[in-house]
Structure formats: C-alpha cells, structure tokens
C-alpha cells in the first residue's frame, strides 16, 4: 500500500501520525474500521511526503 509506494516503514508512519504500529498493520490489512480522523491523518502525511519529494 502507501508504505511501499512512498518508502515509509510502519514504524515511521506510526510515529509521524502518533498511532501504534499495530494500528497501521490493521489499516493495511483492512482489519479495522478507519475513522475519518485517522484517514485524514494518513492522507495528510502522505500528501506532505509527496509534496516534499516533488520539490527535491
């Protein structure tokens, strides 16, 4: 999913958006409902990475 596409590890993403690695695993494996707030956090962080990569 996004981790491979954007070169992130689960640990890095979890730390950046302040959730547990297990939460990231559950999201990736569709094991849990993802709240709008959580979805927004993930999207915003990935957007941030995309913008920074296009600048560099």
From TrEMBL:
UniProt-listed Pfam families: HTH_3
Record protein name field: Helix-turn-helix transcriptional regulator
Domain HTH cro/C1-type, first and last residues per copy: 7-47
Database matches in PROSITE patterns: HTH_CROC1
Organism of provenance: Flavivirga aquimarina
InterPro entries according to UniProt: Cro/C1-type_HTH, Lambda_DNA-bd_dom_sf
């Amino acid at each position: 999913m996004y981790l491979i596409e954007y070169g992130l590890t689960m640990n890095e993403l979890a730390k950046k958006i302040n959730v547990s690695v297990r939460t990231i695993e559950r999201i990736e494996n569709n094991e849990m409902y993802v709240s709008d707030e959580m979805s927004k956090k993930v999207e915003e962080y990935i957007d941030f990475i995309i913008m920074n990569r296009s600048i560099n």
